[in-house]
Design a protein that fits this description.
Helices cover 25% and strands 27% of the residues. The chain is an alpha/beta fold and 411 residues long.
């Protein structure tokens, strides 16, 4: 029996296990999926936890609940992959051979990469919201905070869900308004980019919202260190920005197992063909989700679209057929803008976010690059879709893996 091994039982790995268990159930293949965690976290929920919109129970479930019965879930820490031997070595000494390897080890924050970030003020006045622990600590801080300077900061790109820091700033504005203390809070959005987002058209719309909500933007800020005593962040040019609460997105890196395996780049992301999702170095290794270095957003919707395309390419690889160069970098993201509204953006490698309707051309019901309550409802509904549809490898009706140009307005 041939062996297909998936590294990581997060969003991408779980979807692939479900897709392939269905497709290979009658074939002579054994599917194993490896993860050291007991819990599956709905990571988009970390954004809502600090504002008491979601509870921990809303965003945490057991990993076992979502792994198909046909797949063998192996719980344990991976020491390294030895691709030259088609082997995965576990920290406890176990070894697994594979014929096909799927890398879905994700990305994580690395606050230690910035001097002072994980210093004496870590989770006291300096917080992340990209981990459950950071998000929960921030929730506890905001519940009793009396106001001051709130700085929302991005260390460097790429990061998971590039719009999340903007969403945090918008939700903070709404949160303090509802607490009748917005006048006591100065919100500053600090980014290493030259504008609010990575795409010009979306940047224009998002910077308008920042201005409208009286959120100051500091762009082109390349952080050098966090001064815990003075409570300020300092860039390489000497520019400093004071804070009472710093909500930072630290450097994001791929999993250390890719470094130990010699398979990652400088940030531990695996070099991957951006259209086939095949490793650039090893023909029987495929990569999806946040683990790859492809120039697409590191977001759940991207992993979902990748999984649909990669499933077909895995089947083609097994049959000895040419892989389809089909993945176009498609991303579809709701952006919470506060006060019960949200934007929706849809883009790929070659097309930046544009106006139009989604998913039905000319009908919607969702509008692209326009604030609406319907988009906000879509964002909140996604949690149910995630647990009940997406993770189980079920196709979302009317939403194609590649970007549709129908119903969109291009200049």
């Amino acid at each position: 029996m041939k062996q297909l091994v998936i590294l990581g039982a997060g969003t991408a790995g779980t979807m692939m296990a479900n897709h392939l268990s269905h497709e290979l159930k009658k074939a002579d293949w054994k599917i194993s999926i490896i993860d050291e965690r007991e819990e599956h976290h709905y990571q988009p929920g970390y954004l809502f936890l600090p504002f008491d919109i979601y509870t921990p129970e809303d965003i945490i479930k057991s990993i076992d609940e979502f792994i198909p019965k046909q797949a063998n879930l192996i719980k344990g820490k991976i020491d390294r992959v030895v691709p030259a031997e088609n082997k995965v070595k576990m920290a406890d000494g176990r070894e697994l051979n594979y014929d096909i390897l799927i890398v879905a080890t994700g990305a994580k924050i690395a606050p230690e990469e910035t001097e002072g970030m994980k210093g004496t003020e870590w989770h006291k006045s300096v917080f992340d919201f990209y981990t459950f622990e950071g998000s929960l600590a921030l929730r506890n801080k905001l519940r009793n905070w009396e106001g001051g300077k709130l700085v929302v900061h991005i260390t460097e790109m790429p990061i998971k869900c590039p719009v999340a820091p903007l969403e945090f700033a918008f939700l903070a504005d709404s949160f303090f308004k509802h607490k009748h203390m917005r006048d006591k809070v100065e919100i500053t959005y600090v980014t290493p980019l030259s504008g609010a987002f990575t795409k010009p058209k979306a940047t224009e719309a998002l910077e308008h919202l920042l201005e409208e909500k009286h959120i100051k933007i500091e762009s082109d800020f390349a952080i050098e260190h966090v001064d815990n005593e003075k409570k300020e962040i300092v860039d390489y040019g000497g520019r400093s920005i004071p804070f009472d609460i710093l909500v930072t997105v630290p450097t994001n890196k791929g999993d250390e197992v890719m470094e130990r395996s010699g398979m990652g780049d400088d940030l531990n992301y695996v070099p991957t063909h951006k259209a086939t999702l095949q490793s650039k170095e090893y023909a029987n290794v495929f990569v999806l989700g946040d683990a790859s270095n492809i120039p697409a957003s590191k977001a759940g919707s991207v992993a979902h679209f990748e999984a649909e395309i990669l499933t077909e390419n895995i089947l083609r690889y097994i049959k000895g057929e040419p892989l389809k160069e089909e993945f176009d970098g498609h991303a579809n993201c709701f952006i919470e803008t506060g006060n019960g509204k949200a934007l929706l953006i849809d883009f790929n490698y070659t097309h930046e976010p544009v106006e139009g309707s989604f998913p039905f051309p000319g009908i919607g019901p969702l509008k692209l690059l326009k604030e609406s309550r319907m988009n906000h409802m879509g964002k909140l509904a996604f949690r149910w879709i995630y647990w009940n549809v997406l993770l189980k490898g079920t196709h979302i009706p009317f939403v194609s893996a590649t970007m549709s140009e129908s119903g969109k307005k291009y200049n």
